[in-house]
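**Protein fold record**
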Amino acid sequence: MENAAGCALRQFRPEHRRPAERRAQQNVPDRHQPPGRVGVRGDLRTVTLHQLSEGFRPNTGSDFYGTAFDPEESSSHEAGIKVSSEDGRASGTLALFRAEKSNVLTADPANPGFSAALGEAQSRGVEFDLAAELAGDLQLVLSYAYIDAETSNDVVNRDWGMEIPAGSRLVNIAEHSGRLSLSQDFTLGGAPASLGLGIHYVGERLGETIDPDYVLPAYTLVNLSGSYSPAAGVELFAHLDNLFDERHYVSSYHKLWTMPGAPRTYNVGIRYDL
C-alpha cells in the first residue's frame, strides 16, 4: 500500500484604486488558500481515488462602497476507483464528484448598476474513462461525463438585471457528453503508418441565463486522422474534422451572442526532424 499527499499554498493581493486616488490603495484583503490532494494506491490492478481540493479566482472591480471584491472560491470532492488489467493493456476509471462555488459576481439588489459577490453554484456528477489496447495494435479510448450544474441561491443577473432562482441551470454545461477514439498502427511499404477515428458528443446546453427556453442543440462530430513516415525523421499527416459538416454551436452568452462551431476543415502537412 502506498500513500501520497501534497499541499500547495497560493497567495494573491488584489488592488483596487479609484481614478482620483491612484496613489492610495483601497481595501486590499489578503487571501491564503491551501488546495490539497490526497491519494491512496492499492495493488497493481486497483487504485482507489479520493481527492479534496479548494481554490479561488480573483474577482476584479469593487462594490458600491468601493471595497474590492472577495475572490470567487471553490471546493470539490471526488471519489472513485481505477482498475487496470494485469498485462497493462486496459484500464478504466469511474469517479463521482461534487463541486461548489461561492462569491460569484451578481447584480447588487440594493444598489442598481453595481455588482456584489453574492452568487453560489454547485455541480455534481459522474465521470468514466476507459483505455484499451485491442487486437492488432488497435487502440481504444472512451470517456463519458454526466454533470448536473445549477445555482445554489437566488441571485440577480448582473448583465440583464433579472432574478435567477436557486436551482436554475448554468449556461454552456451539457448534462451528457462523451468521446470515442480508435487508432490503428500498421506498416505501409515497410514504413510506419496510422489511421484514427474520433467521435465527440455534446448534449443540449442552456444558452441564456434569463431565458430557460433558449437551448443549444446537441451535436456529434466525427473526425479522421492519418500519418505516414516514409523515411526516418519524415512524417506526412492529415486531419479531417467535422467529417459530415454538422452545423453546431459550441457556446452562448445570449441568443444574440452565440458561437457557432467550425464547419468541415482539413489539414495536411509534413514534419521533418533535422
Remarks:
- The mean pLDDT is 84.
